[in-house]
Amino acid sequence: MSVTVTINGKNHSFPKDTTILDACRKIGVFIPTLCYHDDLPASGKCGLCVVKINGSSFAYACMQRVSQGMIIDTNSPDVLAKSRRAYSNFIDMSVPPKSKDIEDLNRYLFPRNTVRTRDPDRTNSLEFNPSECIDCGRCTRMCSDIQNIGALNYLNPRIRNNECISCGQCIMVCPTKALTETSSISSVLRAVASKKIMVLQTAPSVRVSLGEAFCSPVGSIVTGKMVKAAREMGFQYVFDTNFGADVTVVEEATELLDRLENKTGPLPMFTSCCPSWVNYVERLHTELIPNLSTTKSPHMIVGRLVKTYFANSLNINPNKIFLVSLMPCVSKKDEIKRMQLIGDVDAVLTTREFIQMINMHGIEWSSLKKSEFDDLMGECTGAGAIFGVSGGVAEASVRFLHHKITGNKLGPIEYTQFRGLKSIKTATIDINSNKFNIAVCNGISAANELIESDKYRNFQFIEVMACPGGCVNGGGQPKLNSRKLGTERMKSILSIDQKKDLKTSAENPKVQKLYSTFLGDYGSHKAHELLHTHFEPQETAVLAQRKRSQSMPIVGYGSTSGTSMRYGRIVASCMGTTSAPMNTLSVKQLIARKTAVFIISTIGDGEFPNNSRKFIEEIRNSMEELSMVRFAVCGLGSTNYKHFCVAGSQLSMLLEQHLAVPILPFKAIDTSANDKGEGAFESWCHSLCSALKLKPPKIGIHLYFSFVKIDDDSILKNPLRPLTFEYASIQKSEYLTEDGYSPEINRYSIKLPKGLSFSIGEQLLILPQNPENIVKEVLDSLKLNPNQALRLITNDNTLENYVPERVTTYYLFKQYLDLCGTPNRPIIRAFLEVANKEGSELLEKLLADVNKEYITKYMGDISTAEFIKEHVKYGIPSLDLLMSSCPHMKPRTYSVASSPIADRRVVSIIVEKIKFGIDNKRNGLCSSYLQSVEGKTIPVCVVPGGFEYPIDISSPIIMIAYGSGIASMMGLIQNQAKNSGPVMLIYGVPKEEAFVKLIKEIEDYKAHDQITDLLITSYDKGGTIQKAMEENLALLWKYWQDDKAILYYSGMAGSMPDDIKKIMLNATINEGGLSMEEAMVYNNRHPFNVETFVS
């Protein structure tokens, strides 16, 4: 089914489930992206791909799917402004790393000097360079969501001594060079310089990918040029690893028959030619080590034969040979360092490293002539060639079994059941009544799924390749924009097989000669001595803990940005277990381990994170009763989005439907809160530990920021403005409330600076400042020099941050830390970290209060400034600690109550004086701030709002507003043209007497025909907006029956928006005569624009 949408003014049709990003790419419309990759689930983390939907709302193109009639704008000024701001927050580096992805986005660059503090890391296979990392999260999503390993940490990726299997798929999606293979180029060059006898062997997948670096189409077969390039580099001998693949086939298939006939080993027998798969078994499933085939991988077999068979044939001293394997795989670098295999191969070069060496040697690729492999081990069959693709080992083995059992050549018979990209491929092969149940796992995630399901026991032989698609998509290959392009490489591998006269490994005359003159029979003692190996568990503290956790409660996370993962690890530490991506879990594990805790984010339009969907689907389809399972679910999300924590609530309900018993009620945490939801999470974690009779964790402060003292007198007189803000001046203020009534309401006219203007429907952000006397008192209590110049270092660029790179201590506390709001739990923890014994006892008591009674009792009516002044006597936290824990100043959002028709640089806003605290004795910071700065400059930023005037000005408009929410409507009304459509306004006020002046202005609009129908209702006299609507359904339908009608609501959040929708549905049914289903479809076609605020 296709849908029609409008993109930048032009109509296009796409399949229903197409994302906006894919749709735009299909028609050649550029949308900037950085965290997105075709082979990974979308996360929207970078925020660059923002687009405007239906003229009013914004969405991420990578996550939002197209729908019928959708109007999409990708390049309007407000869209570009949002994208630039996202880039500013995302690429928080003075000099972004060099890469095509980054260079394509440089037009969005706003340089900042930021020092990254993450640690470099290195293994035999991989290197992590934090100076190149832009924190896009691609590597962690690849590891967690696609490979289902979960070894990488969002905040500080580590690749040593943990679950990492060295597959290198993280490298393939890294947009910079933060993750690379551990280079072997220098060791190879040293060997050439030392006059070693240089021997190169090359895997089948390299010859179908190497040419891509030199402008050949993907999948081009460049075998001859590859061999010639190697000889020009100084390699005297070049062999084909496919020869080793043929030997692997005959040894591995012989081993399988021996296990079947003589029970010499457990079944199923797994292939062992993929070193990442071997790492997976040795690290995470040691119980399967006996099931691994003992046959060495093809390149290790060639390595051993070069040092023995080849050296003997040419009478060469093996110690003078330096053997290099040219591989598509980074894990092979790790394989040659295994104690059992050391010496067989001296170095491994990836395809990318070989490309570097071609360029280093100045080899002109286009003028290279072709060269052939050396003869002794240069011939191979089609069976050896197909090792490069998923299913190739299984197919090659079946061909050999056919030859072995029937005694005949393969002939026209083909065993192609294992080809393709399906994750798990299975078949029962019948050869002369000998039945072989065989499975192929396309990717390590598929292997994990098969193992966890226990269905692997149904097979006798299982092939596993860690990289989806096989070695053609290995971690050492040239990078592709999408793994889908790798199918061209697969086709080329299969075409090599197709052109081979010899299809079965046993037919290879060079292999026959090897066995007849050197090894003896297949599987002989000498063959075992040279061509087989053994495996053993890899033990580290991390892996040991993971294994212990298999009998402990489950802690699973579903994450896109890493917060769920971090919280999962905190919970797991309390329970003495480890956390894991939810997709690595199963219903079987739930039943076995009986207690489960899940922490899950909500993404997109109320969807589950990708690394949880498989597990969710398994629960949905399961017929198992889970009454023996206790569980707790914590959902993470932002209240800024419609489907707040929907994924978590659905998971909780799903488990209850299967009769699982909740340990605690479902907990929804707002990660857009001042402290990113850490306080709410800590309270929930304390409650969970209490329910499970566990000691709650001590949650420390993560240092998101740090400072360096600098000498810079310039910022004393001229402080740098807040990032993304400009300075505007308040020209005039007007008091709108009648004397003696509340709330107090003021109107401010603000002059925007040159170059900054506003459009109808946009909003104004104002960043308030703390009162000077409060700032001085706090700085004095903390013993800080107000005039000290500082340089800010941001350690987590995902945080919204307005602080410029250079700032004085005074301005830091005046402009950027919220001293007048209520203190949060992180600042309590910050003071706890430095408190003396007396202070520790008090603060520990506050943090232990999971019911938040510290707010109402002890802290009662206290501000952050008052908390700081009261607790400095117990110890003073560092400035780094304060900046990372203290609530930051948040910009306040105001709807514009004026039209740009009069003056595009003069903005009018309506501000209600906020009162809070015990007996409402405290004043809201921003409303007080604005009263004190008339005639002065204030930091402002114009941002897109939820409202825009209809494109078709004849459209009927229904406006509904409450209190100061009328500001949005006033801007729209003032923008009315002479031939505009009818306007209906329903205005609710808390107290009619307090809003007399505003009501009179609204009535004047009515008198001047800018409003067609006006309903005003006062709540203190028993009226409500809902009542006014229900009493005027016919009038509402008069507007609503027009297909172009638009509804706007601005006012209190809560149930009001849903109530309005229900009443409009009733109007459509009762006045329009439509059925419930018809009315829902009809109403969904009408734009429903909402701006809400919390009093």
UniProtKB/TrEMBL annotation:
Residues 553-689 form the Flavodoxin-like domain. Residues 1-78 form the 2Fe-2S ferredoxin-type domain. Residues 124-154, 155-184 form the 4Fe-4S ferredoxin-type domain. It holds the Pfam family Fer2_4. It comes from the Eukaryota. SMART domains: Fe_hyd_SSU. Residues 723-950 form the FAD-binding FR-type domain. Its cofactor is FAD; FMN. This is Iron only hydrogenase large subunit, C-terminal domain containing protein.
